[in-house]
């Protein structure tokens, strides 16, 4: 019975709107963007608000929000509140909140006066690209749609006769329709304005606003801010190559594997034996959990690897020293050889001269 009464009431509302024209309800039209808080006035309120009832209608659905000053809607219960003047306050409006709101007064179960109607239109801006896809050089499409009560309003009629406009502007308020960098299209069937552009480096943190104008008056606007993702710097450790003898073990595949000390030098043997003795002593004194044993095995492997690295660096250093000595000693050896050769040559020449002199004297 109540549903039939609501349907009849809605039919009368639509009929009155058609007979009087949409302009007859202009003063009761409220525009807001999604995410904002909005206040809907009740023009027929009685004192105390205990007689006030708020109903919501959109398409074929009618929901009672407030009954005699008490909230009854469970879905939007936390977002709704009743003002001291019996106005309806809605927090963080969504596009689903658009529609017809009716304020009605009851005294002793009898309706008092006429209904007060408020038509809520919600502006919503979205992007076709996810946040990770928005980057310089990429293309992005922004959609600005006005959600309204389709039963009483059409976007075609509002645009044509009521001067409804959806306009894209930049941060300075300049209409982007005049900028060839932006491609803007409008669909009157969905009351949707689309903006497509290729992003530039300087577009980071830039704002573009979609405005709703009704009869050249700015009603509301929704802002979209371009945000580029900051690349996170990841440092990849450079691999360390360690040459091992054939008897040296490879790194274990799992932490639970038993590590065998590497026997590459006397110092490594002593270090490995010391580490093994210390580990055995600790196992006898205390009982370790699997996690502690795993950590100890990891420490052994790290210690063994560090010892191998130290030995390898020491060997390389010795080779470098030998090469340096050879490089510096080579010229000296060559010079000594040359001096010896020359001295030998001089001795031979002196000996020949002595032989010649002795022959002449004879």
TrEMBL record:
PROSITE patterns reported for this sequence: IG_LIKE
Composition bias type Polar residues, residue spans: 229-244, 251-262, 287-296
BP-aspect Gene Ontology terms: interleukin-15-mediated signaling pathway; positive regulation of ERK1 and ERK2 cascade; T cell activation
Gene Ontology CC terms: external side of plasma membrane; membrane raft
SMART domains: IG
Keywords: Membrane, Signal, Transmembrane, Transmembrane helix
GO molecular function, one term: protein tyrosine kinase binding
Residue span(s) of domain Ig-like: 35-104, 123-227
Transmembrane segments: 315-341
Signal sequence residues: 1-24
Region annotated Disordered, chain positions: 229-299
Name this polypeptide is given: Ig-like domain-containing protein
């Amino acid at each position: 019975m109540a549903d039939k009464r609501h349907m009849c009431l809605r039919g009368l509302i639509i009929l009155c709107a058609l007979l009087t024209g949409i302009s007859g309800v202009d003063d009761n039209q409220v525009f807001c963007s999604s995410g904002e808080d909005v206040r809907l006035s009740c023009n027929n309120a009685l004192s105390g608000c205990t007689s006030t009832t708020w109903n919501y209608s959109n398409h074929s659905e009618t929901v009672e929000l407030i009954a005699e000053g008490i909230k009854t809607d469970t879905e939007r219960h936390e977002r709704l509140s009743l003002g001291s003047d019996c106005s309806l306050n809605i927090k963080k409006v969504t596009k689903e909140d658009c529609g017809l709101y009716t304020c009605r007064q009851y005294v002793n179960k009898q309706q008092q006066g006429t209904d007060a109607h408020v038509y809520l239109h919600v502006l919503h801006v979205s992007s076709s690209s996810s946040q990770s896809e928005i980057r310089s050089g990429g293309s992005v499409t922004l959609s600005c749609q006005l959600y309204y009560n389709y039963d009483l309003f059409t976007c075609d009629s509002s645009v044509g006769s009521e001067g409804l406009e959806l306009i894209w502007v930049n941060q300075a308020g300049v209409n982007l329709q005049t900028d060839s960098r932006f491609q803007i299209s409008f669909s009157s069937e969905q009351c949707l304005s689309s903006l497509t552009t290729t992003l530039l480096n300087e577009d980071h943190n830039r704002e573009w606003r979609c405005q709703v104008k009704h009869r050249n008056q700015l009603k509301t606007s929704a802002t979209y801010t371009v945000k580029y993702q900051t690349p996170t710097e990841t440092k990849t450790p450079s691999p360390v190559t360690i040459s091992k003898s054939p008897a040296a073990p490879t790194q274990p595949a799992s932490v639970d594997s038993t590590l065998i000390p590497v026997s590459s030098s006397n110092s490594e043997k002593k270090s490995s034996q010391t580490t093994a003795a210390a580990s055995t002593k600790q196992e006898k004194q205390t009982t370790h959990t699997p996690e502690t044993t795993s950590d100890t095995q990891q420490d052994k492997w790290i210690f063994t690897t560090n010892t191998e690295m130290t030995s390898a660096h020491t060997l390389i250093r010795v080779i470098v020293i030998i090469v340096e000595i050879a490089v510096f000693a080579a010229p000296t050896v060559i010079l000594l050889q040359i001096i010896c050769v020359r001295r030998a040559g001089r001795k031979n020449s002196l000996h020949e001269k002595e032989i010649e002199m002795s022959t002449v004297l004879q």
